[in-house]
Design a protein that fits this description.
By secondary structure, this protein is an alpha+beta fold. The protein has 11 helices and 11 strands. Helix content is 39%, strand content 16%. The longest helix is centred in the N-terminal third of the chain and has 19 residues. The two termini are 21 Å apart.
Length: 352
Amino acid sequence: MSEYRRYAAAALRAFCARALERAGARTGDAVMIADGLIAADLRGVHSHGALRVGIYVDRLRAGSINPGAELQIVRDSGAVVVADAQSGPGIAMAARAMDLAIARSRTHGIAAVSVRNANHCGMLAFFAMRALPAGAVGVAASNGDSLVAPWGARAKFLGTNPLAVAVPAKEEPPVVLDMATSVVAHGRIKGAADRGEAIPPDWAVDAAGRPTTDPLQALAGALLPFGGFKGSGISILVDLIAGLLPGGRSAPEIVPLYQRLSEPQGIGQLFMTLHVDAFDSLEAFTRRVDEAVRRIRALPPAAGAPRVILPGELEHLRAQDYRAQGIPLPSDAVAELARTGSLLGLAPPQPA
């Protein structure tokens, strides 16, 4: 079983930024990537947290991440922008794309930035939530390499194709949905394999299409879409609008994150913002969001449930706790930090 040690967020962030910079990333990009990784760990999404710094370092060193990339605008119609990430660092390029969407929505009310030739960008909530301080709703979607069997198939074709939406509130925490369209993120299964743990039987199938609790068999087979045909349908749409819409790749054409490290991945992403003041006053909207949140939370809980929980609420509470008490990293993340530090001649962060 995984053992957890707590680490100060600042120490983890500093280590990740130093490691990325030493591997070739520009200072500003290294800091942004580290911010995205630690934001995931603070919310308890360890599959997209500091655990990922090692593979980003490996890809920088192998040349598949272009450290000098800029977000190149290839089509611009004001509220809609198509951009080329030039195989740059995924989190840094995605943050620039989201910030561009936020800036355009101030003028147009709504804006979309579609990105091709991107790399893995971690937790999508990090980008959707960037819209909140601007008084906007943030939306982020990304396709990925083939890991998931579409409904009715046993062969993998789709990515985990996550989708995130962040809605501002006034006094309540923002409502933040961030979900893979597979039952579980690929990183959760890889983490279970690294730790020698079993997985639930409804997460994946083996190469013969049979449900499996063995994460290694799952990695050789395919993940399953959440919600059967409904999740499969949403995943297909994400592949189309995030990957193909900007003239990019579909899932089978995308390079897997942990394979062919010298080749850029070619991921497609879509970032959208809806500036609230274009629809109604921010004051009025966020007050109504608060009212809706409180009404939902006050509903009688189902049998066995302690209370009604809204999207992003548990992650918000975890972040408060982890900032104060330290982030509890699983053993595979700790091992990856040690490996990365050894590779680069850096001392790994120490437990708080």
